[in-house]
Amino acid sequence: MPLCNDSSRNLAVAVALLFAGVLYFSFSTRSISDPISDLLHNTNTPQQVFPQDELEAVLESAAAGNNNTVIIALVNRAYVEEVGEGRTMLDLFLESFWEGEGTLPLLDHLVLVATDHTAYDRCRFKRLHCYKMDIKGVDLEGEKVYMSADFIEMMWRRTHFLLDVLRHGNHILFTDTDVLWLRTPFSRLSNNGSLDMQISVDQNNVEAGHAINTGFFHVRSNNKTFSLFNKWYDMRLNSPGMKEQDVLQKLLDTGFFNQLGLNVNFLNTTEFSGFCQDSTDMGVVTTVHANCCRHIPAKVFDLTLVLSDWKSYKTSHVNNKWSPHHKCGGSWKDNDYVPKP
Question: Which residues does the UniProt record annotate as the domain Nucleotide-diphospho-sugar transferase (predicted)?
Fold first, then answer.
C-alpha cells in the first residue's frame, strides 16, 4: 500500500509539471496579435492620445449649450490698456454684460481672440474663453487708427479667422469690442433657420441701400456662407486701400449675395444702434456700437456715458435721449492724435 500511494503521488506530480510546462510554453510563445496578449499589453502601455486642435477645443467649450453658436470678439493690447480714467475698452465691453438684461450668462459663450500676448494674458486673467490668433509677420499690438494700413490688415486677418471658425462648423455672433450689450441679442435676432446672415447697419435708410456694418453680425455655418467668406477674403488682393466692410458692401451691391442665394436680414438701429444713428427707444435697444468714431480714447469716453445713461434708465424706466457723443464727433478733427505704439 505505501508503494502504491508513492507511485500515485509521483504520477500526479509528473502530470502537473507536464501541464505547467505546456502552459508556460504556450504563453511564452504567444504572438502579439493574440487578444489576451494584446489586452495585457494595452493595460500596461499608455494609449496614444492625438492632440485636439486648440481652436476646436475653445470653440467646443464656448458653444456648449448655445445651439453650436459662439460669440466672438477681437482684442489687442490697445483694448486692454487703460485709457482716460483708468478704464480699458475691454473692461467697458465686459461691464455691459454685467449691466445688461439677460446678458451675463452669455459670457460663457464668448471667445476673445487676441492678436498679441498682452491681450491674451489679460483674457486668461479674466478667466474667459481665449484664443491667440496666429499673425506671423504683422504687428497688431498697438491701437490701429481707423483706415490706417494696419487697421485694414487687422480687419482682413479677422475675416480670415472667422472663415476658419465657420469651417469648424460653428455659427458665429461676431461683435466688435466697442459694442455695449444692453440686452441679449438672441431674443431679438430672427429664429428663422433659413437666414444665413443677420448684420447691423449704420442707418435705417432702405431707399439709399443698406449701409452694412461688420462690427456686429450673426452668420450660420453652411456652404453658402463658406463661399461668401472665401470670395470676400480673396477680394482683398484686388482691393488695395479698402477695408473689409467696404468690400463686403461691394459684394452686396453688385448682386453676389443674390448669386449665392443668401438669405440676409438687416438689423434696424432701433434695436441694434450705434453712434451713427442712435436708438430712439431705450425700452428695446439691444446693443450700442461706437461706430462713426475714429480712435479708442473717444470711444471709451462716450461709451462710458452710454453705460451711465443705461444705468439711469434701468432705475427709472424713463425713455430719455442718449448723452451726446461729443468726443467721437470731434475725433475726426483730432489731427494731433497719436496712438500708442
Answer: 106-303
**Tens-place pLDDT, residues 62-107:** 999 999 999 999 999 989 999 877 889 999 999 999 999 999 999 9
CA 9 to chain centre: 79
The dihedrals phi and psi of 267, each to the nearest 5 degrees, come to: -75, 135
Q: What is the pLDDT at residue 36? A: 31
Q: What is the DSSP letter of 238?
A: G
337 burial via Cβ count (<10 Å: 0-12, 13-18, 19+): middle
Distance CA 71, CA 261 (A): 25
Q: Are 209 and 253 contacting, i.e. CB atoms less than 8 angstroms apart? A: yes
Q: Please state the φ and ψ torsions of residue 91, each to the nearest 5 degrees.
A: -60, -40
**Residue 111: which of 161, 157, 58, 164 has the closest Cα?**
58
Q: What is the pLDDT of residue 141?
A: 56
Q: List the Cα angle 215/221/226 in 5-degree steps.
A: 85
DSSP assignment letter at 72: E
pLDDT for the residue numbered 109: 98
Q: How many CB atoms lie within 10 A of CB 134?
A: 10
Residue 109 to residues 70, 106, 183, 186, 271, Cα–Cα distance (Å): 6, 5, 15, 12, 21
Q: Can you tell me the distance from the alpha carbon of 170 to that of 53, in angstroms, rounded to the nearest whole number?
A: 14
Distance CA 310, CA 75 (A): 24
Bridge partners for 288 per DSSP: 180, 273
